[in-house]
Amino acid sequence: MRITHIECHVLVQPAYDVTAASSAQDDIVVEVHTDEGLVGVGETDVNPWIARACITAPGTHNMGLGLTELLVGADPLEVEGLWERMYVGTAMNGRRGAVINAIGALDIALHDLRGKALGKPCHALLGGAVRDHVTPYASLQPETSSFAEFRDSMVEWARRAVAAGFRAVKAEVTLDGPYAHNGLREPWERGTELLAAVRAAIGPGVALLVDVQYAFPDADTALRVLADWEGLDLFFVETPLWPDDLDGYRRLAEEQPIPIAAGEWLTTRFEHLDLMRRGGIAIAQPDIGRVGGLTEARRVCDAAAEHGVRIVPHLWKTGISIAAAAHLAAVTPHCDYIEFLPAELSESGLRKDLTSDELRMVDGVIPLPTRPGLGVELDRDALEAYAEEARRVGAVLR
Ligand SMILES: [Mg+2]
Fold this sequence. Notes:
Elements: E1 3-12, E2 26-34, E3 39-44, H1 48-56, H2 67-71, H3 79-89, H4 98-118, H5 122-125, E4 133-134, E5 136-140, H6 147-163, E6 168-172, H7 189-202, E7 207-211, H8 219-227, E8 234-238, H9 246-255, E9 260-262, H10 268-277, E10 283-284, H11 288-291, H12 294-306, E11 310-311, H13 319-330, E12 338-340, H14 349-353, E13 355-356, E14 366-367, E15 377-378, H15 380-397
Parallel strand pairs: 5-6, 5-12, 6-7, 7-8, 8-9, 9-10, 10-11
Antiparallel strand pairs: 1-2, 2-3, 4-14, 13-15
Bound molecules: magnesium ion.
């Protein structure tokens, strides 16, 4: 079997808002085609036009080859070998950043393809499942313009998530900092008030995760705020500091007790190793597409095990990424949760529409996917509708 061509679908949902603090309103979906008619599907979480350029651009010399030309003609079953080929072949343009994000989409598609070709779910080909289900947590990110509304919506969403069966919820508390919603600029004492209200609403038996989205300018500020949260039994606080402040992360690990999670933007195991070794994080959050695909996410998980670091993958895209995360979690003993937003709690139409037979939560857990490959099916009507919107938005941008 040989790879014949690669299709890139840039997708955008209507009412595209570049000021929104959510990357779930657009997508790039790749399809890797073969001469035997089998097709693998992948996606990644980055500006989809940039990812498409990374995949379709021709190479210029032997240290900066094009991703498409590196794959066409190759045997798609040699997934790990193809990862090396893409990584080394694009070295002068890539090694980090958007090229690795794009490799991630292609690598996920290759894992899907290999599973379909061999008639096995991806997790069976990643070494075999160590559990029969994965546990999702619900990300809660109400869009509001006042603090009172934000707090009350967060509490209401948390209640709904627990009522729907979730055993863990994550409050996206963006009161200040670079990604504060709708201009909210609130003192962090109000964050304490909000989290206490959520904890009271969900009770002691549900895990409470907090994402502050890079809010704190330095470790001293973060330490002052986190000191007020010690009584809230938080499972982790996510990305308190800018990802380059590795020494700041180290101080949070050493000077306060709440576990710190980070890693959603990082590419390759090498960046994750810096965060684990120098930053001292307790939980690594590889985003499977961004980090470089299932092949590289698996290596991050292996490195985490060696460093006593737990895994909770980041995930803000469609059913393709949900499936990829479920397969990764299936083979990762030290993975506690996967990020998951059921369609009824999502404001993204793309997430709801793009894949059919999406994985479902039953009694608070997601049974492992059993179909060959990732086990997802693209909804062709939705794909075409969102691609048409992307063409319209792309034309306006030009
Ligand atoms: Mg986050």
